[in-house]
Amino acid sequence: MAASVCHLPVFIFFLALLPGTTPLQASQTWTLLKVQQLLNRPPVLSHWRRTTDFCGGGGTVAPSASVVCYGDTVTQLHVAGAAQGAPPLPLNFSIGALVTTLSRLPDLKVLTLSGLGLWGPLPGKLERLAALEIVNMSGNYLYGPIPRGLSRLRSLQTLILDDNMIGGEVPGWIGTALPSLAVLSLRNNSLSGTVPGSLGSAPSLRSLVLASNNISGNLPDMRGLANLQVLDVGGNSLGPAFPRLGRKVASVVLSRNRFGGGLPAAELSSFYLLERLDVSRNSFVGPFPPALLSLPNLRYLSIAGNRFTGTLSDKVPCGDNLQLVDLSSNLLSGSAPGCLRPDGKTETVVLSSENCLDRGDGSQHPSPFCQNQALAVGIVSPKERKKIGRQAGFIAGIVMAVLVAVSLVGAMAFFAVRKMTMEGAKTKPSAPLVDEQSSSSAYPSKLFADARYISQTVKLGALGIPPYRSFSLVELEAATNNFANSCLLGQDSYGEVWHHQSFPLISLQFVQHLGN
Q1: What region, left, alpha or beta, does residue 420 occupy, with left being phi > 0 and alpha being psi -120 to 50 degrees?
Q2: Do residues 182 and 205 touch, judged by C-beta distance below 8 A?
Q3: Mean pLDDT of the residues in the chain
Q4: How many CB atoms lie within 10 A of CB 187?
Q5: Contact 159/209 with Cβ under 8 angstroms?
Q6: Helix (H, G, I), strand (E, B) or coil at 17
Q7: Are 380 and 374 a contacting pair, CB within 8 Å?
Q8: CB neighbours of 246 closer than 8 A, spacing ≥ 6?
Q9: Cβ neighbours for 488, distance < 8 A, ≥ 6 positions apart
Q10: What is the pLDDT averaged over residues 7-28?
Q11: Is there a cis peptide before residue 88, judged by omega within 30 degrees of 0?
Q12: Rounded to an integer, what distance in angstroms lies between the CA atom of residue 132 and that of residue 136?
C-alpha cells in the first residue's frame, strides 16, 4: 500500500504532461466560438459548443477541423472547407475582424483556413499573431498585394496562399525579412513582374512554388540556396535563361514558359537527387542529353513541345526509378532506348509521338520533316552540319561555274557584235549633209512632226560640223504658215527671221543671196 502511495505523485506528474488533460482557457474557448460565427458556421464546425473540450480532442473532426493545445492554450487551428472550395462568405463578412479575433490566441503557431470562401484583401493585421510559423489560407478569394505586415512574422516558416487572387509583385523583402521561411507557395494567383533577387539568398528556402501567375523575366541565381529542393514556376512567362540551381534540388517544373536555348546537360547530370524534371511547352532547342534518362532518382521526365534534336540509340541506359517519360512533339530521330520499350526492364510509361523515331506505328513524322524543321530554326547536329556544308559547297560551285560560263558567252557575243558594227560603218557611204533632192520631192503631210529632221541637225553639231540644213520652198511655206505675218520675228542685215510653228524652239533665217 505504501509503495502505491509513493508512485501516485509520479503518475499525477506525467498525467499533467499529457495533451488535452488541462481545460482550455475560457477566453480562448470564447475566441474559437467567435471564429465559428465569423465563418458563418460552416458545416465542418457544426459540432463546436460551449461545452466542447477543445484541448481534449472534442473540437477535432479529421481531416476538416482540428484544434491542438499546449497546456491550456491553443497552438494550432485547422479549418478546411470542401475540396472544391466554398462560395464567398456574406457581404457582412470582414477578414479584418476575423484576424483581430484570432489575435486573442497569442500562442497560435499553425493557422489553416482553406477553402472557406474568405474574401477581401489579405490583412496586414496578421502581424499581431507574432508566434505564427505556418499560415495556409489557400482556396479562398483573397486579393490585393502581399502586405508588408507579414515581414514582421520573424518565426514564419511556411506561407501558402495558393488559389486566390493575390496581385502585385512578389515583394523583395520576402527573401530577407523572413529568415526562417522554408516554404513559399503562391500558385494560381495574379502575380506579375519579376522574381526578386532576394529569393536567391533566402537562407532556409526549401520549396518555391510560383506556378500559374503572370511573372516574367529570368529567375535569380539560386545556386546559393543549399536547401532548395522544389522549384515550380510553370505557367508563367519566365525565361529565356535556364535557372541556376543548387545540386540538392529534387523537383524542377518549368513547363509552359518562355525558356529557350539548350539544356545545361553537364549541370543537370550532376543533380543526383533529381526526381522530377518538367521543361515541356517551352522554346528549348538543340541536342537532347540522353544522360538525363540514367539519373538514379529520376521518376518523371517531360521535354514535350520543344525543338530538341538528336539521334537516340537503343543502347542508352535508364535509371531504375523512371515511371514516366514524355518525349513527344520534338525533332528526335533514331530508335527509342531499349530500356523504354515495353519489353524493357522498367515498367515506364513512354510518350514519344510527333517525332521522327523508327517506330512504324504512324505516330511519327517522316525523317525529312525533322531535318527541315531543324534547319528552319538553325539547330542541326555537328554531323548533319558538316553534311549540309558539303552539299552547300557543291551547289555553290555549280552556280559559280554557270555564272562564269554565262559571263564568257556574253562577253564573246558583245565583242562579235561590236566588230560587225564597226565593219559595217566602214563600208557604208556617208550621208550627204544637204539633201539636194528635197526641193523636187513632194511635201509630206507630217514632215515637221517627224523628229528625224531635227535630230539630223543635232547630230551634225555633235560631229563638229555647223548645224544647218537646206529646205525647199514647200517646206518653208508649211513651216511659216505660208509666210504669215504672225510667224515673222524680225529682220537683220542677213535676211528675215521666221518662227517655226511646229517647233516653237526653232527659228528659221532666210538669207538673201543675190537678191533672191
Answers
A1: alpha
A2: yes
A3: 82
A4: 20
A5: no
A6: helix
A7: yes
A8: 222, 223, 224, 225, 226, 228
A9: 480, 496, 497, 498, 499
A10: 57
A11: no
A12: 11
